[in-house]
TrEMBL record, chain A:
This is SERTA domain containing 1. It comes from the Eukaryota. Residues 38-85 form the SERTA domain. One of its GO terms (cellular component) is sarcoplasm. InterPro entries: E2F-SERTA_domain_protein, SERTA_dom. GO terms for molecular function: transcription coactivator activity. GO terms for biological process: negative regulation of cell growth; positive regulation of transcription by RNA polymerase II. Residues 197-207 have a biased composition (Basic and acidic residues). The gene is SERTAD1. Residues 189-211 are annotated as: Disordered.
Automatic annotation (TrEMBL), chain B:
It comes from the Eukaryota. GO terms for cellular component: cytosol; protein phosphatase type 2A complex. Keywords: Repeat, WD repeat. One of its GO terms (molecular function) is protein phosphatase regulator activity. This is Serine/threonine-protein phosphatase 2A 55 kDa regulatory subunit B. Belongs to the phosphatase 2A regulatory subunit B family. InterPro entries: PP2A_PR55 (IPR000009), PP2A_PR55_CS (IPR018067), WD40/YVTN_repeat-like_dom_sf (IPR015943), WD40_repeat_dom_sf (IPR036322), WD40_rpt (IPR001680).
Amino acid sequence: MLSKGLKRKREEEEEKEPLAVDAWWLDPGHAAVAQAPQAVASSSLFDLSVLKLHHSLQQSEPDLRHLVLVVNTLRRIQASMAPAAALPPVPSPPAAPSVADNLLASSDAALSASMASLLEDLSHIEGLSQAPQPLADEGPPGRSIGGAAPSLGALDLLGPATGCLLDDGLEGLFEDIDTSMYDNELWAPASEGLKPGPEDGPGKEEAPELDEAELDYLMDVLVGTQALERPPGPGR
Amino acid sequence: MGLSFFSKNLPIQEGQPWALTTPADIISTVEFNHTGELLATGDKGGRVVIFQREPESKNAPHSQGEYDVYSTFQSHEPEFDYLKSLEIEEKINKIKWLPQQNAAHSLLSTNDKTIKLWKITERDKRPEGYNLKDEEGKLKDLSTVTSLQVPVLKPMDLMVEVSPRRIFANGHTYHINSISVNSDCETYMSADDLRINLWHLAITDRSFNIVDIKPANMEDLTEVITASEFHPHHCNLFVYSSSKGSLRLCDMRAAALCDKHSKLFEEPEDPSNRSFFSEIISSVSDVKFSHSGRYMLTRDYLTVKVWDLNMEARPIETYQVHDYLRSKLCSLYENDCIFDKFECAWNGSDSVIMTGAYNNFFRMFDRNTKRDVTLEASRESSKPRAVLKPRRVCVGGKRRRDDISVDSLDFTKKILHTAWHPAENIIAIAATNNLYIFQDKVNSDMH
């Protein structure tokens, strides 16, 4: 059924299934059950948290407490993963990271746009002004810049390990996006978790390796998500 | 422990097997009134059921002080917010009774967005003998009226009438998690994830914002309000808890906006227990002042803690509710159980504290003797008048006959809501859609 060490698919609808009998996750031998030492977070824990974050954001009205706790936990996990020194050499071409970031950011953008616009809706209703993030983000390094939409700080964490977002479990989230782009070697598991992350400054919009069709597609997605945003409020 | 409880299993809200449970029947809050005569429950379907304790009578010694249904009404309906295209759940998050000031009873009930003040009155007499109307209320033909009579009050079957007196709407953008009536009996507060508002019970069109922790940029949001309560005696003091495990005591006399706390209660993280889930399990799910007003009780995922208002550095007592779950946190994170919000309660004399757990277990801790007990709320183990048997969860090693192993705990059976009678040893336990009321007959007085 479910072998140890692999994360299992999680239905979007399934909230809390009865757990009485299925006790595989209580098996002390399971990688996820043993307390992960602070130094090394299992990537499955990271993936799980990302999944939870996406699931939370997908709700029409996210449970703020749940969201905030998951985001903070994700930050802790990311913090422990970042300084991991023993990374195998990156086999994919050097342009792959920036491509990954851009594509990630664009697929991210829809989610972050919906979250940001939701929060903005809330602000507007109260009469408070809250301008969306300017596109050129002057935030501290580590924040994802490639996206065209204001991004909730939390979603920046999705920068590094991009491969995980495109695993099977997340197919449902991107149903309306043409996924033919992803069916190429760039998304081989070998590239998972090896991205240096967006700390190398503002993301580059251009990626020489991309052909024109792919660039066009990218632009469509970026423009499409911008259309979802509300007009900015009066000042910040 | 000195307490031996026997059960009074109420036939109300008979639970069906888990698979057939109607979600609307799930009890979402339980609250005794100030005398303990009335017990209110709210459920996911927006209904409120009030139970009343029957007076003890010599004629029927077996029905000493049992709780029977007094009134049932629909408090909240599902609503649709057209502006945001969102449905607002009718689930009752909290009920708080107002102190009784006349023959009527009043309570506040709230869902995620709207608080309502309900007045409960009894009618056991009705006037008879009107001159102009007949018994059915139809106007009489005046020519048939030959003499005048004074209408008299005749007894009738007791009728309990409930009416909404005030509706406090549009005060909250985020989800309301607590309400608390002030000791001044004129104001109350409501708290959502980011803000706390102060209302006057008679004024519905405005409220005062007294706490606002919303950051200017929502990207910077790292902490939310999880619970809040007014001090039982000092009408200017209130406390609110956060998702990071801190408590803030605020004084409304100090400033109009109580963003600056008077006291901050926070326990430093234990380095030996540090994990990725440290913050989640430190999130306070409930905070309750003691009846004396000197202490606070908090519940986080694994413990209940007693805090002295005079000591901010750490709690004075910590009790482990189910420490055997500490090694299972990753799995509990995966299935979201780690986010469950358990409530806690003091007994009338502040000597015993109670909280719920999984597998329909609930725990009690005696602060004086330092003894604790685990009990189960389930039909199988609570025949009426039977004494509840202490349960035990074994973690491996020696296992006694009736022990439950950690691996066979049912995490879908959670006791999130419990309440303790203000004066006597009577407790109300909500187990999904069943309400259990347990009473200690051996030691009826507080100890």
